[in-house]
Automatic annotation (TrEMBL):
Residues 1-11 have a biased composition (Gly residues). Its cofactor is Zn(2+). GO terms for molecular function: carbonate dehydratase activity; zinc ion binding. SUPFAM superfamilies: beta-carbonic anhydrase, cab. It catalyses: hydrogencarbonate + H(+) = CO2 + H2O. The lineage of its organism: Bacteria, Bacillati, Actinomycetota, Actinomycetes, Micromonosporales. It comes from Micromonospora orduensis. This is Carbonic anhydrase. Residues 1-24 are annotated as: Disordered. It comes from the Bacteria. Zn(2+) binds at residues 71, 73, 124, 127. Its EC number is 4.2.1.1. Keywords: Lyase, Metal-binding, Zinc.
Length: 239
């Protein structure tokens, strides 16, 4: 079978796009995401690219401007918290945003085939996967079934946190997000190469469940997250 690619005609039905398909710069993509998050937080989402016209327009090709490697937590729906729509975000989710071959392959597909300029690791406070790993580390009792694979993937972050003297759960979550950014770049030479060439950036953000706000905790290159973290107005390009 063939995966849907970026190519394809642009069909004629009326479009309601906000031109996110033209975003090719990492910093611009990050600014677009944070602008959407500010709309969501303020209670004034625009729900862009969610109507029937746009659905038809993107049927033959996709140009997502960001890959989201997020935790599977049900309160972390990317299109909602970033106020985006169809064709905007290429989303890969696992409990605790753990990475493995399928995750890496999915990220590489978006970056190389679809030309997506930004990869965002999306973690959150009170993450159950991190809490489960901490429980295992404290008790030595391994979980049943495949949940052990999730815990095993989080344990290196717990060891890093312990080495740094970080004990609170949300501090550990921040470290785990940063560790996931590092892991993506270490395990995917394809992604690392795209970042080196300036075609892509990787940013780790932490989401607060109650407030709905995302906060950058790691970025490669470091300056890519400098846009969009201020409390200034949304970028003019946001629809
Ligand atoms: Zn989680």
């Amino acid at each position: 079978m063939s995966l849907p690619g970026a190519s394809g005609g642009q069909p004629g039905p009326q479009r309601s796009t906000d031109q996110s398909s033209t975003i090719t710069e990492p910093a611009r993509a990050y600014a677009e995401l944070t602008a959407g998050n500010r709309r969501f937080v303020s209670g004034s989402p625009r729900h862009p690219n969610q109507d029937a016209g746009h659905r038809a327009a993107v049927a033959d090709g996709q140009h997502p401007f960001a890959v989201i490697v997020g935790c599977s937590d049900s309160r972390l729906a990317a299109e909602i918290i970033f106020d985006r729509g169809l064709g905007d975000l290429f989303v890969v989710r696992t409990a605790g945003h753990t990475t493995g071959p399928e995750v890496l392959g999915s990220v590489e597909y978006a970056v190389t085939v679809l030309g997506t300029p930004l990869v965002v690791v999306l973690g959150h406070d009170s993450c159950g996967a991190v809490q489960a790993a901490r429980e295992v580390a404290a008790t030595g009792v391994a979980p049943e079934g495949h949940l052990g694979a999730v815990v095993d993937a989080v344990l290196p972050s717990l060891r890093r946190a312990a080495a740094d003297g970080v004990e609170d759960i949300d501090g550990i979550v921040d470290i785990h997000i940063a560790q996931t950014v590092e892991a993506l770049l270490e395990q995917s030479s394809v992604l690392a190469d795209a970042v080196t060439r300036g075609r892509c950036a990787v940013v780790g953000v932490s989401y607060r469940l109650a407030a709905g706000v995302v906060r950058p905790v790691a970025a490669v290159p470091a300056d890519v997250a400098s846009l969009g973290v201020s409390d200034g107005p949304s970028t003019p390009a946001a629809a």
